[in-house]
Amino acid sequence: MKNYFIKLLISTILIVVISHFLKIEITNYTAAIFMAVALSLLNTFLKPILVILTIPVTFFTLGLFLLVINAIIVKIADYFIDGISMTFIQALLFSIILSISQFILNKIFIDEK
Question: What is the total count of domains within the chain?
Answer without folding.
Answer: 1
